[in-house]
Amino acid sequence: MSDCTNKQSTKMTMCKNELQNKALELKNELQRQNLNVLFNDSSFRDYLVKLTVSVDGKLKGYLLLYYKPTKNTFSLRRQIEDLAVDCLIDFLWNKLNNSDIYSLESGIYEAFVDGSYILGTTGYGAVIYLGNEIKTEISGTISDVQFRQFGGELKSVIETLKWCGENSVKKIRINYDYEGIEKFALGKWKAKNTLAMEYTHFIHRTQTKIEWRHIKSHTSNIKNDRADFLAKKAATTNKIPNKTLFYRIKKA
């Protein structure tokens, strides 16, 4: 029985085994890049382990690795003073979680998309990259709020693909955390309402080649967190919906 499910002992550190395994995996990845990582039994707290990072004997800062058993996800909070080291750790963490991005040389764009519903307003957000360069940020609200957050999730993809069409983008990878984004698009989920039908129709009409990738939410992916921030900011600061849910297809 794992630490997370053993409730008989109050002395046991919750989820220590899970944290230790992930911390060792991260440590090995960082040490391949000449970053020294240390932690011991005293580094653990319930659902948390603290790692010390140094380079050539010089302290660079700390990493706080969290585990959420209900979602089976890990997140990483970085307290690193050296910007170059901080950027390297961010890159390696994303690589470790299979969420690293295409290089600039590949010519393939990356989009991170999200939606949010807060107090009666649905917001959407998207960040589009080429390599590590942000090409644009997209956000706004929609008037059709009956589907709440999911309307924002799908709208973020629509606006991303509209931008791609306007800027002659041939291929883009869309990174998402709501699985319906891909499953509706590929027909794995049947579109049974107006929202899903309009979304799938738009996807099938786009001229941009799409690669899909699921990224778990709350795993400290900075790019994904930025899309989430944009969606939440739109939902909380722009209370007047500025767009209908989707591009309405003109009838012949």
Report the sheet-strand fraction. 25-35%
Largest sheet: 5 strands, antiparallel
Indicate the overall shape. Answer: globular
Counting helices, strands and paired strands, the structural category is alpha+beta
Number of helices: 6
Uncertain segments are 6-10, 246-252
Q: Give the SSE string.
A: HEEEEEHEEEHEHHEH
Fraction of helical residues: 25-40%
Give the total of beta strands.
10
How far apart, in Å, are the first and last alpha carbons?
63 Å
Mean of residue pLDDT values: 88
The Cα radius of gyration reads 21 Å
Summary?
This protein has six helices and ten strands. It has helices spanning 16-31, 83-96, 149-166, 180-185, 194-205, 222-237, and strands spanning 36-38, 44-45, 48-55, 58-68, 73-80, 109-118, 121-130, 133-142, 171-176, 209-214.
